[in-house]
Design goal:
Blueprint lengths: L61 E6 L2 E6 L11 H26 L3 H27 L3 H14 L6 H19 L20 H13 L1 H17 L5 E7 L1 H4 L4 H11 L8 E8 L2 H17 L4 E7 L17 E7 L11 H12 L4 E7 L8 H22 L5 H20 L12 H10 L10 H10 L6 E6 L2 E6 L2 E9 L1
Parallel strand pairs: 3-4, 3-6, 4-5, 6-7
Antiparallel strand pairs: 1-2, 7-10, 8-9, 9-10
Helix pairs in contact: 1-2, 1-11, 2-3, 2-4, 2-11, 3-4, 4-11, 4-12, 5-6, 5-12, 6-8, 11-12
Length: 500
């Protein structure tokens, strides 16, 4: 496939209106970029002699408008005049990433020889077609063109296979999300919109099993637990009374794996173990958290460790400092594994309020582990492309870790990662809770709440841990301004940071 790929579908109408499209959907996140759909009529093409920071276009960039379900292309200012909005750069970067992977696969097949070359070329061509169909469908959904979007979704369902290639599988999840989102919007010109409803995270047996599989087989959560526990041990060094506030108890992961490992380390640390370890589990499912706490109490007894566990039944936004009954003679640590992104809202005030309440507890350390990706942008199309890039990397790693028809992989993809994807793609307002952000944005947010960075200085230990962990090659750990980031083939996946 030539890098100068162009895709110019004949799907556009003849409406001549020049109004700038601003969708009045009563939902801030439903807005699209302040230029108009679609984007493909002048697809960025690569120039063999240019640097990777520039784009060469066959024609000047133009804008399009959506009105009454039709598209109209009219020349206008280039997107480069909007430095803060780089959707086309996302498209170009994703296209180049795909072509690079395709080139490596073709080279590998060429070295092997045989009749597989023709098959591999066909698979790569189908994969690139799937990428473009997904982007076109996202545009149509953003423009509220239900007829065009529905037609594209029908094609995508036939090609996005749950047991196909890694990109076919991730595409199937995005198809589910786009289908759900399309059902929520009214055709262009209609009054109002069917808003998404905030849904509580229900725990089902399949989701529970998928979460356990992700913990056992993927390094993301284990990486967060390792960095958190090492940081907690350092903070608790020499302390007799230690207290942990655990926000969410790692999504309610059964058996309390993180705290079992911490108990072992505390019992075997140099000197005496602490005289008392207290853990507060924060969440809205007290029965589930109490079951984890009961297991931990039995485990602590086997280690002869004085342990107390209590549940704080509350969501993060309604927490109060007095919920935790802290004591001045305790060393307090707050642990947040994949939790605080759920509090990020359009208003930006909700998260700051939670962080300020946590700061009032005067913790010795706050540990933050979050997905390192920008899935909370203002515009739907930008979020869509970021999520497509991010989860393609995760599904790529799963493709290497497990065989094609392994049911464990399908369970993780369909009942864990697909749930995140569908929330990012289909939900708006209070219903959209998977609001992942980059580590730089978290630095700004936490600093504004009064916390100071506590650089993590264990990069060598983390790399040694990764070497001993049973994960496939391709994962690396890098240091980023005092934070540790788990990458898959240079794509950031999970970031861990500490604050005091």
């Amino acid at each position: 496939m030539e890098p100068g790929l162009q895709w110019q579908p004949q799907l556009y109408g003849d409406d001549k209106s020049n109004e700038v499209m601003g969708l009045d959907l009563n939902l801030p996140g439903m807005q699209i970029y302040p230029f108009n759909c679609p984007i493909h009529s002048n697809w960025p093409i690569s120039d063999e002699n240019r640097s990777h920071k520039r784009l060469k276009l066959e024609h000047p960039m133009d804008e399009s408008i959506c009105r009454n379900g039709n598209y109209n292309c009219s020349t206008s200012n280039s997107l480069t005049s909007l430095p803060g909005l780089q959707f086309r750069d996302h498209v170009w970067a994703y296209t180049q990433r795909y072509l690079a992977i395709e080139a490596m696969e073709e080279a590998a097949v060429a070295m092997l020889g045989g009749d597989e070359n023709e098959i591999k070329e066909e698979e790569c061509g189908e994969g690139m077609k799937l990428v473009l169909q997904l982007i076109a469908c996202a545009e149509a959904v953003a423009c509220r063109d239900k007829i065009h979007a529905s037609a594209l979704l029908s094609e995508l369902r036939a090609n996005a296979l749950v047991f196909g290639t890694s990109f076919q599988r991730v595409a199937s999840c995005f198809v589910q999300g786009l289908t759900d989102r399309l059902a929520l919007v009214q055709p262009l010109g209609a009054v109002g919109v069917v808003g998404s409803v905030a849904k509580a995270k229900t725990v089902t047996r399949k989701k529970d099993e998928a979460l356990s599989l992700v913990y056992e087989l993927c390094p993301q959560i284990q990486f967060g637990h390792f960095v958190a526990n090492e940081s907690i041990l350092e903070a608790f060094e020499g302390e007799s009374f230690v207290h942990v506030v655990d926000l969410g108890m790692t999504l309610g992961l059964p058996r309390g794996h993180q705290w079992r490992n911490l108990m072992q380390s505390l019992v075997h640390r140099t000197g005496q173990p602490p005289k008392r370890l207290r853990i507060n589990g924060v969440g809205t499912c007290p029965e589930r958290l109490q079951t984890i706490g009961d297991d931990l109490e039995h485990y602590a007894k086997s280690l002869k460790l004085n342990f107390e566990f209590s549940v704080v039944k509350s969501n993060l936004e309604n927490l109060k400092p007095e919920d935790f009954n802290t004591s001045s003679d305790e060393a307090l640590v707050i642990n947040s594994i994949l939790q605080l992104h759920c509090v990020v809202k359009e208003s930006r005030g909700a998260l700051n309020s939670v962080l300020q309440k946590l700061h009032e507890l005067s913790p010795k350390l706050l540990i933050l582990v979050e997905q390192d990706s920008s899935h909370n942008g203002l515009f739907f199309l930008g979020r869509f492309m970021e999520a497509l890039h991010y989860y393609s990397a995760i599904f790529d790693s799963l493709d290497i870790m497990l065989p094609k028809y392994d049911t464990r992989r399908a369970k993780m993809e369909q009942f864990y990662f697909a749930e995140e994807i569908k929330n990012i793609v289909s939900c708006e307002g209070p219903g959209r809770i998977e609001r992942h952000e980059r580590v730089n944005q978290w630095r700004r947010r936490i600093s504004r709440a009064g916390f100071q960075p506590a650089p993590i200085k264990m990069i060598m230990q983390a790399k040694q841990w990764l070497g001993k962990a049973k994960v496939c090659e391709g994962y690396t750990i890098v240091e980023d301004k005092g934070c540790l980031v788990l990458d898959w083939k240079s794509k950031p996946i999970i970031a861990a940071s500490c604050w005091k």
